[in-house]
Amino acid sequence: MTTQVYKVYIKATPQRIWDAITTPEWTARYGYRGLIEMELHPGGAVVGRANAGMLALGAPEIALDGEVLEADPPHRLVQTFRMLMNPELAAEGFTRLTYELKEGKDGVTALTVTHELDGAPGLAALMAGQFEDQGAGGGWAWTLSELKSLLETGTGFAG
C-alpha cells in the first residue's frame, strides 16, 4: 500500500481550516484552485470542478469526485477521492483521503493529511509532486503550503 502523510502547522483555528478545506469559496483560492463542493455527511458527494485554466487545456468540467465517509467538523474528514483529469488517472479508481485537525497552543492547529493511494501509482506520483516541472503543480506539499500561506497572510502564491 502506498500512503502519503503530510503534516503542517497553521496559525488558525480548526474551524477556519475546516472551512478552507470544505467550502468552494476557499478551495478556489489555493492549490489547484478548483471549486470543491462537499455534502458533509456520510454518503455525501464530493465534486471538484476544474478551474478555467484546466478547462482551457482540455480537462473535464468535473476534475475529481468522491464520497464523504466521515465528517466530524472541525476535527476529522474522511472521504474517497478519484482524479478525473485524464482517463489513466480516472481508471485508477478511488483512493482514501483523511484530514485531521488538532488545536494546539497559541492559536496554532496541526493539520494532518493522509492519502491512501493503494493501486493508484499515477495519482501517487502526482500528489507527491513528481510532475511539478511539467506544470502539474507540486501535489499535497504545494497545496498545503499555499493553504498555510493563505490562512496566515491572506494571500496565496498567486497573490
Rg on CA atoms, Å:
15 Å
Please state roughly what percent of the residues sit in beta strands, choosing from under 5%, 5-15%, 15-25%, 25-35%, 35-45% or over 45%.
25-35%
User: How does the helix and strand content classify structurally?
Assistant: alpha+beta
Strand order across the largest sheet? 1-7-6-5-4-3-2
SS elements, strand count: 7
Poorly predicted residue ranges: none
Average pLDDT rating:
93
**SSE arrangement, N to C:** EHHEEHEEHEEHH
Largest sheet: 7 strands, antiparallel
Oligomer: single chain
What overall form do the CA principal axes indicate? globular
Q: Which percent bin holds the helix content? A: 25-40%
How far is the N terminus from the C terminus? 37 Å
- Count of DSSP-assigned helices: 6
Give a written overview of the molecule.
By secondary structure, this protein is α+β, with helices and mostly antiparallel strands. It contains six helices and seven strands, in the order βααββαββαββαα. It has helices spanning 14-22, 24-27, 52-56, 87-91, 121-127, 139-153, and strands at 3-10, 35-38, 45-49, 62-72, 76-83, 95-103, 109-116. The protein has a seven-stranded antiparallel beta sheet with strand order 1-7-6-5-4-3-2. A hairpin with a 6-residue loop joins strand 2 (35-38) and strand 3 (45-49). The radius of gyration is 15 Å and the shape is globular. The mean pLDDT is 93.
